[in-house]
Amino acid sequence: MISLAKRNEITKREAISKKIRRCLKYKHLYLMIIPGVIITFIFNYIPMYGITIGFRNFQPNLGYFEGEWVGLKYLKQFFNDPYCFRLIRNTMLLNLYSIIFGFPAPIIFALLLNEVNFSPLKRFTQSISYLPHFISTVVIVGILMKLFASDGIINQLLDSLGIKQQNFFGNPNWFRPLYVGSKIWQDTGYNAIIYLAALSGIEPHLYESAIIDGANRFKQAIYITIPGIMPTAVVLLILSIGRLLNVGFEKVYLMYSPAIYEKADVISTYVYRRGIQGFDYSYATVIDFFNSVVALVLITIANTVCRKVTEESLW
Amino acid sequence: MKYKKSFGSLLFDWCNTILLIFLTFIFIYPFLYVLSVSISDFHAVTLGQVKFLPVGLQFDAYKAVFKTSPIPMAYYNTIKYAVVATVLTLLLTSMTAYPLTIIDFPGRKFFTIYFTITMFVKGGIIPLFLLIKSLRLLNTIWAIVLPSCLTMWNIILVRTNFKNVSSSLREAAYIDGASDWRILFGIIMPLSKAILVTIALFTVVSQWNNFFAPLLYLSDPQKAPLQLVLRKIIIPDSAAEGTMQGMMNQAKGSVKDQADIIGYREAIKMAAIMISIGPIILVYPFAQKFFVKGVLIGSVKG
Prior knowledge:
The complex is a heterodimer. Chain A is an all-alpha fold. Chain A is 73% helix and 0% strand. Chain A contains 15 helices and no strands. Chain A is flat. Chain B is 74% helix and 0% strand. Chain B starts with 6 loop residues before the first helix and ends with a helix.
């Protein structure tokens, strides 16, 4: 009996030391991964805990982890905020318009490029088309303001056509068209890359047999080309719907002014104004948190739908 | 795929070609316009005569930007941030991705989940801002560089590429007595140059264009990168008048007519834009194929 117990203990000890030895064998790998683990812990995991700031009465002079718990006080405050509806509406509409007008643009552009037989033109146009994507938001907005200024080139054009000049940056009704339009200008070429790749993946023999069957170019496009890029398009569309609540902060922040808050103020800019500029840290945290929870739910739904429909998904 | 073209087909080709030339013009026009205004005669700019090509020629606006604006310093700051961010990103991403490719590495699953969670759960800007504030990193380069230097997205890209380097190569090197560090830096990273260059380019561009992080974390004008300074010059704002004023004083020498001061002001703004996007446009033709590659691997591994 004793020897059996002893033997058990020995095998146990051996197992543990084997485990340790196995880990020691990989000690360099642990050393390698540790900096990344620490950085991620500090800059990702601590802020995750920092979300609790939205449920505490956080005071800047207290520490990061201090402040008494107040439950859902700030969340309720947000739902009673007179701007609450306006912020959610503006955020969603901006994205909705971006999808409606911005989603077909790269598909059409890729289809047109695909039909070009003269390849230098094709290459040149394509190369130029994704340049705007790499230009900073500050520059884009700066150029936009110059072109659409009250004495800018667009207003000169309107004037010569006999149309009344517009105050593009002071009139709230112009904000969405300007935002969406410049976004399309900026992203069409870049987003077309993925469709062009899908197009080049279509097997040439499909076209060959279609030609033999007497299909003209239009019919080829309808029956071969478009179905060929459909899966890509569906995935991208569903995913962009999942991002309905994510609006880039920078562009809105640079474009808007108090005069057009009515149409232009979105959740992220409000969070910035209340939190960073207004020191209302708890309140701003909870709004941002609410936004990212809804966004996460949306993207998860989108991903699930996407997997069901196309058998492809983000994760 | 040769076949006799019908009239309709030819007509379409012509329309399509014209349309694409027109679209190319649309893509390029804003840049052309900015360039033209920046080098045109101030008088012509004031009168709004510049439409496409420059009217007259001057480089005083560029001189003013270089001499009297904070742009040269901002250039230096941006380059510093971009270099440090790129080195850190490449180093940390590779060092994190490599252990995750080794199948019998104990804890591989745990670490993968640990990094993946950060893709879905984010603290948001206020908690991160307050953290950086309490770590006393405000107004330091680390506030710009550290929070964004390791992303799961990059880890996935690099990990996929490292996996493609055959594991027998690693084992052979291991038997020959090479340590994991030697294997990573001496064998695997050189063999994955393409993906590392792609990530480096994207990091450089995103640092070059970075506006949000500096806006949050850098209030010291001495530390301001290009985009912050640029914003003060080109986007009208009450706080920006000081920056503009210095350059306007310079104007007294180079502007003869007081009415031309408006044109001078506009030319300066456009010159500042050209100076800030210059490097991107210059590098663009060479970097293009890597940019395209970045999108495509992104989509495959989506």
